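Appendix C: a fully annotated inverse folding record. The material below is reproduced so that readers can follow the format used throughout the book. The structure is listed first as tokens, followed by the designed sequence.
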């Protein structure tokens, strides 16, 4: 794997990028996690991939199965599941242009009304060329969070940090972040992992 220039990774994943992914201000740790994944998994630097165009940011069509090559996070966690997790009907799935780098990384965001504000959920999926490459990137990301809680029985490896659940399955890294508890994240991630088969 060719060495990556840090600036190639940092440019697309700054603070404004992460607020676009989640719809809110994001702790620096999550930015670091995604930045670390970008630099260790070949999603940036030299691929020449451009962010998704407007046609790819349209609402997803329902599907029952998604391959890891498809990287469709809006099909890995459906709007019905997001509605149940957030406790209110979600609007149309959003695919923030700034958070999608086909074919390696894709993000889906769901937003639902809650009280005077909104509840937000994001699903990030990133694919590596090999499972070894994915494991090295995942392990590197995990090491950025000394207090990360291992989550046994989910994918090949999983850990939680605050309201984020991070799962490795083969060549795929999955991150689910939302305004809900870890048990809800686990349920969503288990269904998403099943859809990767």
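Designed amino acids, in order:
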């Amino acid at each position: 794997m060719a060495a990556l220039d840090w600036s190639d990774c940092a440019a697309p994943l700054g603070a404004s990028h992460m607020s676009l992914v989640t719809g809110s201000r994001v702790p620096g740790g999550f930015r670091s996690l995604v930045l670390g994944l970008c630099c260790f998994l070949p999603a940036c630097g030299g691929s020449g991939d451009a962010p998704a165009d407007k046609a790819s940011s349209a609402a997803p069509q329902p599907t029952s199965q998604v391959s890891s090559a498809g990287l469709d996070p809006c099909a890995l966690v459906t709007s019905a599941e997001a509605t149940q997790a957030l406790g209110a009907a979600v609007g149309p799935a959003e695919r923030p242009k700034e958070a999608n780098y086909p074919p390696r990384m894709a993000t889906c965001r769901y937003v639902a009304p809650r009280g005077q504000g909104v509840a937000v959920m994001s699903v990030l999926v990133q694919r590596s060329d090999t499972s070894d490459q994915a494991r090295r990137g995942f392990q590197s990301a995990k090491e950025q969070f000394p207090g990360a809680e291992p989550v046994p029985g989910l994918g090949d490896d999983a850990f939680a940090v605050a309201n984020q659940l991070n799962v490795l399955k083969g060549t795929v890294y999955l991150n689910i972040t939302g305004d809900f508890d870890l048990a809800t994240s686990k349920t969503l991630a288990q269904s998403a992992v099943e859809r990767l088969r």
